[in-house]
Amino acid sequence: MKYKNHLPQIIIFAFAFIIYANTLGHQYALDDKMTYWKNEFVQNGAGGIKDILTYDTMAGMFGKDSKELEGGRYRPLSLVTFALEVELFGKETTDVSAKAPFKGCPGVSHFLNIILYCISLLILYKVLTKLFRDYKPKYWYLSIPFIATMLFAVHPLHTEIVANIKGRDEILAFLFSVAALNSILNFVDKNNKLELINAFVFIFLGSMSKEITITFLAVIPLSIYFFRKERPSKYLLMMVPLFAGALLYMGIRAAVIGDQTAIEATELMNNPFINATLGLYLKLLVFPHPLTWDYYPYHIPVVGWTDWRAILGLLVYAGLAAVAVYGFRKKSIYSFGILLFAATLSITSNVFFNIGAFMSERFVFVSLLGLCIIVAYLISEKLPAGISHLQKYKKAGVAIVVILLLAFSIKTVSRNTVWENNLTLFSHDIKISSNSAKGNSTYASELYKQSEDAEAAGDTALRNKYLIESIPYFEKAIEIYPDYSEALVRLGNIYYKLYGDYKTMFDYYIRTLKSSPLNADVWANTLGVLVYNVNDPAYEKYVWSEFIKYSPTQYQSYLQMGNLYYFAQPAQADSAIFWYEKAKTLTTKDFDLLFYLGVSYGNKGDFVKARENLLLAAAIKDDQEVYRYLGISYGMENNDEMALQYFEKALSLAPDNEQLKQYVAIAKQRMGQK
After folding, report:
1. How far apart are CA 464 and CA 449, in angstroms?
2. Count of beta carbons in the 10 Å neighbourhood of residue 384
3. Cβ of 363: how many Cβ atoms within 10 Å?
4. pLDDT at residue 214 tops 60
5. Which fold would CATH assign to domain 436-552?
6. Strand partners, 92
């Protein structure tokens, strides 16, 4: 009999585990790079936990002081679990997207994701059983809690959360959120005030996992309102630990990452207010096909408010709002389900504030629970009202549930396989998100990474194959979004790698600087190619002049322009000085700049300014050539004592240099003549 009492939980756990079992052999994909294998804090194991707790979630990848951390993410708990995995199970691991081995164990990570997901479902089932305690189903397997939990467990939109290791933040946030609701129900039903402490802890831990937990400050009192009758004083008492847990998190978050609310994302790839839509969410809840990791511009068609799709979406949302408001006082299950959907989606919907990201399947991870409850209510409570014969209802109810679970199971298991690694995910989903700039560029970049691996292995033919395959996808990304820097830079690189066409490469680089003037790849590659592999002064001057036009605060452009005149045959000191002085207004920390500027002034006979710059260079680095030129400048002004001093400094750095020995001898001789 005891076994039967736990049969629903056993079925739920086993069912969810089996559904996601085919992810156990998966590798890493998508954001696992940022949160796991390229996250320095996580890779440090237990030793990185302090940094995880005291820095932005992305600091482990981008660096503690990186400017790429705008937007503010503080979700340390999942990263702590990853660090513990590395500490306990980590071993040298490789991945198709990684350039070097790292510490990890993807099998353990995927297993823990599944287990945590299954545990969250068991807590959800317990909570729903308590909420719907006054509903008396004809059969336990046709009860609202069981049907809703099973539908929630298998819904294909959850694949992104469970199959992607990074999704653990969502799983933990949901697990602790429903645990907090469970504790509040225990407090309300049993008046056990110790449960308030549990609720405080769970809300705090959920918030430390992901901010979605904050929405349960609305979900929990709504749940009590719809399913219990309590005095206002009890509402106030139960809300104290919930707000305390959330405020503790917000205080820690503010101390760690500061106030990020004033930062506005303006670049298309980070700004969801540019031509984004919520309409697709409703469709995916009911009919989750096709699915993709990529809902960036312009996978979703951009339509005006006069388009029938926009009008239909607006009408549907308005209708749902009307049903929610109408049924609120009556405590309708429809109202509860809609409000649950709206409350948990509110924080990621971009309606109230810009989260710096577009729509994503993970954003409705919790929200779709509202739909599952409504569907379960219709099957468990409304269907028997229309089918009076008990056996007919049983057959019809079971048939509907089985069909829904079977359809969702097939889709989920199939979708799981796509998430095996980046290459499988990107190559599959680009067929769905063919009009997405990010999707095209990301898939092309994965091919580009494969070409780098082939090149490292010495397989030039395979390298070229991957590069050629990537070209149309990079071109498509640029066609969709002309300022896409990732696509522009790598497409330029490809033309240089395949054909040695540096002019086409720099055309793409210049286009990149128009919208991304500080692009690190452009600057690094330009210095490597233009300075060392191109011998075309006229073209080089053109490139650096374009760089100056679009990135006037970068001193390197002015320095390189000066170098072109400095090393010309014959040298053009006036032009070199003109550009070097411009560079010097932006930095006085570059040794080469100060040295070449000093020599140029010396070549013009201005020994005062020559020494001024050479001394600045000497302050940066002890260098025999700097001291030699300082000695020459003093010698030209017949200051043999100072000339000798610097010649001897130069000779101390190069004691075998015959020319310096001669300079020292001459200086001494001239001093002796006096």
Report:
1. 12
2. 19
3. 24
4. yes
5. 1.25.40
6. 103
Residues in a beta bridge with 91 = 104
Helical (H) or strand (E) element with 121: helix 106-131
Nearest to 47 by CA among 13, 78, 77, 87: 87
List the chain domain ranges: 164-260, 436-552
By C-alpha distance, which of 388, 393, 380, 385 is closest to 136? 380
Distances (CA, A) of 514 to 77, 240, 511, 619, 625: 39, 52, 5, 36, 39
Look up tokens 């149309």; give the residue: 472
What's the pLDDT tens digit per position in 219-250?
Answer: 999 999 999 999 999 999 999 999 999 999 99
Q: Phi, psi (5° rounding) for residue 315?
A: -65, -40
Provide the pLDDT confidence category of residue 2 given band limits of 50, 70 and 90: very low
Q: State the pLDDT at residue 273.
A: 41
Is 112 a residue whose pLDDT tops 50?
yes
> What residues have CB less than 8 Å from 603, skipping those under 6 apart?
571, 573
Residues sharing a CB contact under 8 Å with residue 234, sequence separation 6 or more, in sequence order = 188
Q: What is d(CA 292, CA 434) in angstroms, rounded to the nearest whole number?
A: 11
Mean pLDDT in residue range 97-101: 80
Please tell me the distance from the alpha carbon of residue 528 to that of residue 542, in angstroms, as a whole number: 17
Calpha distance 317→655 (Å, rounded) = 83
What tokens were used for 600? 């140029």
Q: Where do we find the tokens 């990732």?
A: 486
The answer to whether residues 153 and 376 touch, using CB atoms and an 8 Å cutoff, is no
Enter the DSSP assignment of 379: I
Q: Which stretches within 139-215 are classed as H helix? A: 144-154, 159-163, 168-190, 194-209
Cα–Cα separations (whole angstroms), residue 672 to 660, 665, 669: 18, 10, 5
Give the integer Cα–Cα distance in Å for 366 and 16: 16
Burial 420-441 (b: 16+ CB within 10 A, else e): bbbbbbbebbbebbebbbbbbb
The identity of residue 389, as a single letter, is H
d(CA 346, CA 203): 18
When computed from its CA atoms, the radius of gyration of the chain, rounded to whole angstroms, is 33
Following DSSP, what letter does each residue of 6-42 receive, concatenated?
THHHHHHHHHHHHHHGGGTT----TTHIIIIIT-HHH
Question: Tokens for 70?
Answer: 């705008």
Across-strand partners of 93?
102
